[in-house]
Design brief:
The chain has 297 residues and is of the alpha/beta class. It is built from ten helices and eleven strands. The chain starts with 8 loop residues before the first strand and ends in a 7-residue tail after the last helix.
Length: 297
């Protein structure tokens, strides 16, 4: 795995400036932030994006063990890998470093090649974990988010909306007579239709909107800071865009299809707000199907 050093930030924490200087020299290919105390380290981590921490153990006020413990108890910082740097070589200190969540342990005086190897190893592990997390949240066919990710992020979105008293709306989108498309043209064409709709939804989404493939030929859009009228306008644009396109698929098949859309406002003050709004949007989608499809309800 290739690491882009210029994009990675390492926080170097040691109360000895000479040690800081040595570490900055060894890690010159990385973007490093020097810090001379545990207290200041916690402040920096709160304000900056940090990919890795090199953390001295013996420091005044707050030692490295306490800093690590605080970070591991915080959901926002618990995944940042911490490599302890220390002159202590006793087994109790080493054992404690790992027990409280340290990823690795480097003994002073520093050996440059060893330190670089350990830093690169931890950054590679983090890159792999992020890649796996990304793949676990993506629908492989459409490259949109999947249902699992939507469930996780929607709760966070609703909590923000409740805090800031913002409106949120949901759109459920379904391809009309999709089974007929599969039966007539085959599943490969059916997959291409799903992908073309996913691309249309991706084109119309704003940066803050969440679009996912919810299952089969059904998609969901969550629209933060959007009224029900705003959701209706967007839904109409998407429907009209789909209607206006005749897409050439594999085997030179030209095909038009339509979609039905159900929209609902989210009442963020209610318990189970997501489930309730999805049910309302699904009921609206059913109404659109019952009224003849190719419409927004």
């Amino acid at each position: 795995m290739i690491i882009e050093n210029s994009k990675l930030v390492i926080l170097v924490v040691d109360d000895n400036k000479s040690n800081i200087d040595i570490l900055l020299n060894i890690l010159s290919n990385y973007d490093c932030i020097p810090c001379l105390s545990g207290k200041n380290a916690l402040e920096i981590i709160n304000d900056e994006h940090i990919d890795l921490i090199l953390l001295d153990i013996m420091m005044p006020e707050i030692d490295g063990f306490e800093v690590c413990k605080i970070l591991k108890e915080n959901s926002k910082t618990k995944t940042i890998p911490i490599i302890f740097i220390t002159g202590q070589t006793d087994e109790d200190s080493i054992e404690k470093a790992y027990e409280i969540g340290g990823a690795d342990y480097v003994i002073k005086p520093f050996r440059p090649k060893e330190l670089l190897a350990r830093v690169k190893k931890e950054l590679n592990i983090q890159a792999l974990l992020k890649e796996l997390e990304y793949l676990a949240s993506i629908d492989p066919m459409t490259k949109l988010y999947n249902r699992r990710y939507f469930t996780e992020v929607s709760e966070y979105t609703i909590n923000l909306a409740k805090r800031d008293e913002l409106k949120v709306s949901i759109i459920i989108i379904d391809i009309d007579k999709f089974k007929n498309i599969n039966d007539t043209h085959g599943h490969q064409i059916g997959d291409e239709v799903i992908i073309s709709l996913a691309n249309t939804l991706q084109y119309h989404k704003r940066k803050s909107d969440i679009v996912c493939r919810y299952g089969g030929d059904e998609f969901v859009m969550m629209l933060p800071n959007t009224s029900i009228e705003g959701a209706r306008i967007l839904a109409m644009k998407i429907k009209d865009d789909v209607n206006s396109n005749t897409i050439k698929y594999s085997n030179n098949i030209k095909l038009k299809f339509t979609i039905s859309l159900g929209i609902a406002a989210v009442n963020s003050s209610k318990p189970n707000a997501i489930e309730l709004s999805l049910k309302k949007a699904d009921d609206a989608l059913y109404e659109a199907k019952k009224l003849g499809r190719d419409r927004v309800c």
